[in-house]
Description:
Elements: H1 3-35, E1 36-51, E2 54-64, E3 70-74, E4 89-95, E5 103-104, H2 107-148, E6 150-161, E7 173-180, E8 187-191, E9 208-212, E10 220-222
Antiparallel strand pairs: 1-2, 1-4, 2-3, 4-5, 6-7, 6-9, 7-8, 9-10
Amino acid sequence: MTVRGLFKYFFAAFGFAAIVMAVVLYLDTASFMKEAVSGQGVLENVRERRVDEKTVCEWVVRFHTEEGRLIEFSTKSGTRCSGARIGDTVPILYSSARPEEARIDNFFALWGGSIIGGLIGPVFLLIGGIWIAAGRRKRRRVSVLKREGRRIETELERVEHVTSVKVQYRHPYRVVTRGRDPLSGESRRFLSDYLWYDPAPYLQDVNVPVFVGRDDPRRYHMDLSFLPGSPK
């Protein structure tokens, strides 16, 4: 399988992982909220770091628990850099049993991870699932045509560089052949699936087999399995 062919599985796996992450983060925050108490902290420091070529900040906050213990914690995820001034009062939530795991009392800081994962996870999973299902359906269709269709030999007409389609800055190629329709007896053109390299050097002086549906000549498959890197 090509690297390009692995993309659909990456989409599905990423989507599933994002959904799992969203559920884990939601349950973790929900569990934290059950025993959390409100408090006020003081912003002691703002640490900048680079993530994916962007600058994010971690807030270092100090506060006193109800028992008078001095606790310092930093935000786990990146927080806004602008508008934060050292010495500002910050609303916080913390567990009396584990005050060092305190969090900023902000809706997005508490629930943002689960919301983002819950939004993008299903989208990626759906795209990957549809992509995988379409590939399997196509393989079944090709298998039926090879087993039950009429095989005809066609001659190369040309190899097209399809500039109207672009994926990752690349344009695919398509093989165009001509042969005789087994039902009508008339000459007709056949088009291959997209190829991501120029197959012209491998199509000199060869006939290209095409499998045509016995009852529906509009259904056909150009068999290019003899080309390097093509599915067998």
